[in-house]
Amino acid sequence: MGLKRVKKEDFVLSDYVKNGLHTKKSTSFVFKVDEIKKLPLLDKMEGKDETVDLFDYSESRKGFSLVLRISHSKKTFYLKARAGKTVARGAMRKLGDFGYRTANRSRPAKGLIELSEARKKFHELADQLMIQSEEAREVADLTIRDYLETLYTHDRDNYSVKSGKHHPLKPGTVEQLIQAFPHWIDRKVGDVKKEWVQEFVDHWDSLHLKDPETGKPVLDPVTNKPVSTNSSETRRKKYTMLNAMFNMCAKRGYIPSNPIDGQIGRFPRSKFKSDVSYDYVFEEVIEHLFNSEDIKGSLAGKIVIATMILTGARNAEVYKNYTSNFDSKERTMFIPAEISKNNGQRKVKIENDTYWEFVALYLEQNHFINQFDHMFPSTKKNGHATESIYRPVWETLKPAFNQEGRLYDVRHTFARRVTKEFGISQAAEVLGDSIETAHNHYVQGDEEEKFANMAAIQQTSREIEKPAQADFETPAKEPPAHQQDSSEQIVEANEEFMPEPVLWLFNMFKNGKVLPTPNQIYASQWQHFVGFVTKKHERSDLGEEVEDWLMMQ
């Protein structure tokens, strides 16, 4: 039979608790399991969500209290922080819903915690929140720009992120954040609120890609709506960077919590896989790009696009690059780790006379010495140029292809040509991708080629001498999987280096499978598993560690 419920105004603690009551405070007593079990729940009132807060007389620390909140459906433990000398800001942090062991000593149901666990969590969280309030208030009153430029790098160098791991900032992150949020960067750290996320979306929706000749927004051919300059992937990256910053602020106690956390689902990963492969000859398209009067835009923009066409490089790996990385003697371009998406450096070859002729012309006539040695410095501010440097060039070059597609499809085109000639492994190396990513994005099915290959295999099979009928009647017993002389490649699958979410999935995946040895797996099984983790990560973000792990597979 359930506990009797009472109205909030009729709830009197001394009616239910006889021992351990505070002599002066009517809502304070010594928390004990049996006493908490006696406490009734509240009547559910129409249109109201009423609660009663009770305080643990035996478990308090300066600035903190262990609270039991009673509602109409449950009893929940909280840590209450009071702003003062040891606590920066007042806050209520949920510890868990009350549960207790039954007569047979079985643990509480999943999702419930015992009083002993609540006390343990209370002290752990109090330790995290105990920082000098004066310092925290000073940081909360800083603008986001000031915090980024003075403290954020220090905090990331010296404190773990939300996951508990230590991840110092990557070079350029502060500058990227300042550029990504121009309308918020001069607001105070302590002013952050959940509604900002919708403000980000509205702002990005208002930024339209414009036709260089008409000045009108470019319309998406499918939706007939203006194309935003910020794709879903770009928005996701910007949000993730700012969210990580506010998570650190919450961890350090500058703000009570991060109100914009948990909104990553509003910026889904792109599921787009382009099937466009441009049909051009490299020499001809580069000649047309640099010498045709139909191509508008700056010489710098032409070099960026030419580099993408000839190397398959990402746009940012070109326009963010440095002058010293373009080697006309060796005819190479070096891509440093800090501007590469996967944080991995590589060098690419550019064997094209016209290209290097115009690079030399650009360096002689257009380029200017700048503080950071950028190959394409901005003419409006310190730092490198942006995507706008090449947009007019692309809009006038695209018609020459006689195909619908995006600029990024020149990377896909290059990748598919390398894959066809030299295999997926070489393509991944040239492009700076993992084999899994390269396969998912650049392997394009060719029905005619596939059918021809199948027919060739079947024809070859017919030419093999037919065995006697008896051979089919009593086939030899196939040896068990663990006894097979497997010619299949075996790869390392070291569980020690797997992030926790990956390890959990791997333990499920290998259940019931025969593996060669501990920490090893057949290549086909491994490819299957990595593909599974990739899809799982795309559906529900598994975290930065999993992202890094996938990039290395």
What's the SSE blueprint?
Blueprint: E1 28-29, H1 33-38, E2 52-61, E3 64-70, E4 75-81, E5 91-98, E6 112-113, H2 115-129, H3 133-140, H4 144-158, H5 173-180, H6 196-206, H7 232-252, H8 282-291, H9 299-311, H10 315-319, E7 326-327, E8 332-335, E9 346-349, H11 353-365, H12 391-397, H13 409-422, H14 424-431, H15 435-442, H16 447-463, H17 469-473, E10 490-492, H18 500-509, E11 520-522, H19 523-539, H20 544-551
Parallel strand pairs: 1-2, 5-6
Antiparallel strand pairs: 2-3, 3-4, 4-5, 7-8, 8-9, 10-11
Helix pairs in contact: 8-9, 9-11, 9-13, 13-14, 14-15
Instruction: Give the overall shape.
Output: elongated
Largest sheet: 6 strands, mixed
Rg (C-alpha, Å) = 31 Å
Helix content: 25-40%
The overall pLDDT average reads: 81
User: Helical region count?
Assistant: 20
Distance between the termini: 56 Å
Low-confidence stretches: 464-486
Give the total of beta strands.
11
Strand order of the largest sheet: 1-2-3-4-5-6
Strand content: 5-15%
Helix/strand structural class: alpha+beta
Structure report:
The chain is α+β, with helices and mostly antiparallel strands and 553 residues long. The chain is built from 20 helices and eleven strands. The strands form three sheets. The protein has a six-stranded mixed sheet with strand order 1-2-3-4-5-6, covered by helices on one side. A three-stranded antiparallel sheet has the order 7-8-9, with no helix packed on it. A hairpin with a 2-residue loop joins strand 2 (52-61) and strand 3. Helix 8 packs antiparallel against helix 9. The longest helix has 21 residues, at 232-252. The chain is elongated and about 95 Å long. 22% of the residues are buried. The model is unreliable at 464-486 (pLDDT under 50).
